[in-house]
Automatic annotation (TrEMBL):
Protein species of origin: Nocardia coubleae
Domain of life: Bacteria
Alphabetical list of InterPro entries matching this protein: NAD(P)-bd_dom_sf (IPR036291), SDR_fam (IPR002347)
Keyword Metal-binding appears in the UniProt entry: no
Official protein name in the record: SDR family NAD(P)-dependent oxidoreductase
SUPFAM superfamilies: NAD(P)-binding Rossmann-fold domains (SSF51735)
Length: 246
């Protein structure tokens, strides 16, 4: 049998990077894509995979990326994130555009392009990393929660549309994972980003990567539809148990 192949978008940091490592450990040849090519190149060297530049907001970039992938058994739609935290009244249209372009249309572009190859593999799996923000709303978060809801709806719709095809679909909806997520959300403000995880034991990228690998290692007839995973210290988007810090 030829080597099983996985594609991970947004593999230059956080959950995507850890997932690529975990899938490589399982024997997959992993195509890793992101805009920061130096990072994915280093990762590909480490795990014996293939690095490709990828901007999921660009049609041309997605075409170049997906054309270079000859075979795909597992697609991990991970590229995404948040920009800002503002009430609707003060919504920054550019932030909203970024979030919708990256999380929603980015997932659509990559999935649409790779779907024929996933079907052709005979046992394809699409894992989409959404969020608990795909299931709840929270004040000042509508740009992100609306984008994650839309991404979730896109993914869940495929579950029905692909019935009868040899493709499984798993949505992973994490709570707080300590990655570069908050740094990106707060435009590089490290102090503000650190506060998100202050006084809690957050999830780490490896925790999510292990769940992706678990889903990918189930037999072909087992479809894990939705996995919601949060730190023990978190009940919902804005509800944490925080230890006092000095
Ligand atoms: O964040 P981070 P996570 N084209 O910032 C890439 C969701 N999530 O690992 O292009 C291609 O470390 C970016 O690469 P680069 C979250 O919404 C997280 O936490 O080089 N790639 C980087 O590799 C997201 O969907 C938390 O900048 C693009 C990666 O995305 C997923 O988990 C909670 C791109 C982001 O890595 C991974 O995020 C939750 C583009 N245009 C959901 N734009 C959490 N961390 O708490 C960005 O509920 N990327």
């Amino acid at each position: 049998m030829s080597t099983r192949t996985a594609v991970v978008t947004g593999a230059s940091s956080g959950i995507g990077e850890a997932t690529a490592r975990e899938l490589a450990k399982q024997g997959y040849h992993v195509y890793v894509g992101a805009r920061r090519f130096d990072r994915v190149q280093r990762l590909a060297e480490e795990i014996g995979g293939t690095a490709l530049e990828l901007d999921v907001t660009s049609e041309d970039s997605v075409r170049g990326f997906t054309d270079a992938v000859e075979r795909v058994d597992v697609l991990v739609n991970n590229a995404g994130g948040a920009k800002g935290l503002a009430p609707v009244l003060e919504a920054d249209l550019d932030d909203w555009r970024w979030m919708w372009e990256t999380n929603v249309l980015g997932t659509l572009r990559v999935t649409k392009a790779l779907l024929p190859k996933l079907i052709a593999s005979g046992d394809g799996l699409i894992v989409t990393v959404t969020s608990i923000a795909a299931m709840h709303t929270y004040d000042n978060g509508a740009g992100y929660t609306s984008a994650k809801h839309a991404q979730g709806v896109l993914h869940r719709t495929l579950r029905g549309e692909l019935l009868g095809q040899p493709v499984r679909l798993t949505e992973i909806a994490p709570g707080a994972v300590e990655t570069e997520f908050s740094l990106v959300r707060f435009d590089g403000d490290a102090e503000r980003a650190a506060k998100v995880y202050e006084g809690i034991d957050p999830l780490y990228a490896e925790d999510i990567a292990q769940i992706v690998a678990f889903a990918a290692s189930r037999p072909a007839h087992v479809n894990l539809d939705t996995i919601v995973v949060k730190p023990r210290d978190q009940e919902g988007p804005g509800r944490f148990s925080r230890r006092p810090t000095n």
